[in-house]
Write a structure and sequence with these properties.
- The protein has 221 residues and is of the alpha/beta class.
- The chain has nine helices and five strands; from the N terminus they run H-E-H-E-H-E-H-E-H-E-H-H-H-H.
- The protein has helices at 23-31, 50-61, 76-79, 96-109, 129-136, 148-161, 168-177, 182-199, 205-215; strands at 39-43, 64-67, 84-90, 112-117, 140-142.
- A five-stranded parallel β-sheet has the order 2-3-4-1-5.
- The model is unreliable at 1-5 (pLDDT under 50).
């Protein structure tokens, strides 16, 4: 019986795979504190590497970490207690009043804020005019869709994290046919690991094709 265990994911700098699609964002993180503004945003789809980059910066800057959904229940001064804050998964549903007060406090205290978001802040359509003005002026760096080389490298790393030995032809087959996102790579490797454990089969190309076809079907991803 295969147990559905969540494996710990390393979010250190050494485990971050740099590529053209994320180099600009990595350069921004590593250039801290020489930023173009005290508050910046990392924008990209799920699994693009925002959380990993955010963790790298938080370690570098000694930043607190706060989910945007919890912002309304946290005093701005507490959130910025270390002089730096990683605000994760911000977006149109983030409390406008709480975010406005946070940005004001960051400016008053010369604190740094790194926001991660799926959409550029300027596109959130906020109703608070003063907040909208601040978001329009906010520098944003977008993470692009991963290219083939990065997908291959991520697949190899994910398989290695699970102590799975997979032939290069299987990795190549998956990289050419899978959904082009790092989040999809994580789901795919987890599904392959589970299938191999449950069936006792090796991770061959036929098994990869079977699992890939299944998870690419609507409502099964």
């Amino acid at each position: 019986m295969a147990l559905d265990l969540t494996l710990p994911e390393s979010l250190s700098r050494d485990d971050f795979l740099a590529a053209p699609c994320n180099q600009t964002a990595l350069d921004l993180v590593e250039s801290w504190p020489d930023w173009p503004a005290r508050v910046v945003a990392l924008v990209g789809p799920p699994g693009a590497g925002k959380s990993h980059l955010g963790a790298i910066w938080a370690d570098l800057a000694g930043a607190r970490r706060l989910a945007a959904r919890d912002l309304a229940g946290t005093a701005p001064g507490d959130a910025l207690a270390t002089g730096a804050l990683l605000l994760e998964d911000a977006g149109p549903k983030t409390s406008e009043v709480a975010l406005f007060h946070l940005l004001n406090t960051a400016r008053e205290e010369d604190a740094f804020v790194l926001m991660t978001a799926r959409e550029a802040p300027v596109s959130w359509g906020v109703g608070l005019k003063d907040l909208a003005s601040r978001l329009r002026a906010l520098p944003s760096v977008a993470l692009a869709e991963p290219e083939d080389g990065l997908l291959r490298a991520v697949l190899v790393k994910l398989f290695a994290d699970r102590q799975l030995v997979v032939d290069a032809e299987v990795v190549e087959y998956l990289a050419r046919r899978m959904e082009r996102s790092l989040d999809a790579a994580r789901r795919l490797v987890a599904a392959l690991d589970r299938e191999a454990l449950e069936t006792g089969r090796r991770l061959t190309r036929p098994l990869a094709a079977q699992v890939l076809d299944r998870i690419m079907q609507p409502n099964l991803i």
